[in-house]
Amino acid sequence: MSARTAVVWTPEFLTYQLSDDHPLNPVRLDLMMELSRELGVLDGVELIEPAPATDEELTRVHTPGFQTAVRSAPEAPFGVGHGLGTSDNPIFFGMHEAAALIAGGSVRAAREIHEGRADRAVNMAGGLHHAMPDRAAGFCVYNDCSVAISWLLEQGYERIAYVDVDVHHGDGVQTSFYDDPRVMTISMHQHPLTLWPGTGWPGELGRGDGEGYAVNVALPPGTGDAGWLRAFHAIVPGLLRSFQPQVLVTECGADTHAEDPLANLELSVDGHRAIYLALRDLAETTAGGKWLVLGGGGYALFRVVPRSWTHLQAVALDRDVAPETSIPAGWTARAARHTRAPLPVAMSDGADASYEPWEDGGGDRVDSTIRDTRRAVFPLHGLDPDDPRD
């Protein structure tokens, strides 16, 4: 374990349960933590218990009126608007407290880095990247990603990179910092013509002083490990090397997996592991080792998310789990109490996560995506969109 990695966790994170049958079921977090424990990933790790985000911390991102609506919604007889009470964002008792606790977890993770107790910090309950300043959206009440980034900006940071590898566009975080050149948001997601929220086009570049600091990589449905990784390595490292962030913040949704029921990319757990290793390397080489790790989406609750995010925690802790590692019987017994679906037997899907580096001139749909993003953004940072070395 890296002595400089903090893991923020409390069982109270599991109270963020929008409804009994909602896709964002906290069982995925419970099973992820149990699998991490069973595999020894958390041996000797002192888990850090967070406090709820304060009103001041939330107000850096969310309007006071929205916060009032969230607090009052469980008792409001006729609804409160603000995106609350929909099928995506049903109202539940304790909603403000549960959402504020997750946001507070991400602030606490940021604080561990800022105050020098850790180089890396993890809040796997975080990553609620769709919430907007004045409304809930996409299963997200408060946007803990934006709240944590805003907290870091208040401490004087001038360059923060946010890389979002969730299958859905990181629209809420992009909105929070669309005109702010201190924050570069990079979102890799399924093409907006084919998936909610319908945003995240290459031409969404930022506004005013923030032009060029919003980056969107819109991948075609069916993109698998090789294409996804080719696009990532063709775009993200060059921009991060140019930007030189002081902290790298990552939203690591596992819903790009082929088995995820809500989207149409085709990655494997092996591909996810390759992404996490690449993010760790970029944190070390471009951000001075400062890495804030957040969870995100992921709706294959039993077969995918626990394995993917156990790999993520292991990578953040420098306790990489070999793909061929067997799933412990104790974890399987625990998971079987929740589902009759077949459960995985290893920490791998048996997939090959290798890829061919991008070269200008490739003809498939992923290469077109790469060119669209590079040509939109790279010149704004003095980079050559047609030169694979940039």
TrEMBL record:
Protein name, per record: Acetoin utilization protein AcuC
List the residue ranges forming a coiled coil, or say none: none
- List GO BP terms, alphabetically: acetoin catabolic process; epigenetic regulation of gene expression
**Alphabetized Pfam families for the sequence:** Hist_deacetyl (PF00850)
Query: Per the database record, which ranges form the Histone deacetylase domain?
Result: 22-314
Domain of life, per UniProt, equals Bacteria
| Family affiliation | Belongs to the histone deacetylase family.
Matching entries from CDD domains are given as: HDAC_AcuC_like
Pathway given for this chain reads: Ketone degradation; acetoin degradation
Q: Where is this region: Disordered?
A: 347-371
Alphabetically, the GO molecular function entries are: histone deacetylase activity
Entry keywords, A to Z: Acetoin catabolism
Q: Which residue stretches does the UniProt record annotate as biased composition, category Basic and acidic residues?
A: 362-371
